[in-house]
Amino acid sequence: MHNASNDAGSQYTMIRHAKICASIAIRFRDVDAMGHVNNAEYLTYFEEGRKAFLKEVMGIEVPADYPFILARAVCDYIRPIPLSAEISVMVWISRIGKKSFNFRYEIIDTRGGPEPYARGESVMVWYDYTSGKTAPIPEETAAKLREYREKSSTPASSGTA
Length: 161
Known about the structure:
alpha+beta
């Protein structure tokens, strides 16, 4: 896992910003009868990228310590991932609101494929598990997230909180 940056973006217009890159091991069980990674596994790969981001950027290693809930996840499948592929998931922030923020993801070929295997996004809502209610994102956390936020005029796909 390492930080990476990008000058020009995919379908998202991006100006240089930090990203987290996490290597993903494709397991035999991830592959379906069609001989490629099953579509449901792509969201698991996004989750692994999210886990790497939280560990590296926020120092959170135990899922029970995650101070938010997943409100929405989407995946755009671009091309199939074969079992023999070597992949990584790139993770960055696309939007930061008062109570929520969005992760963006790209599953890439670490050997330099022509385009990503998939792109996705998730909306995370800050949550107080004691009160059972949403809560504002602390400024210290928002500052850390801003280091990984794309500088773009592209509107977030959803979530305005």
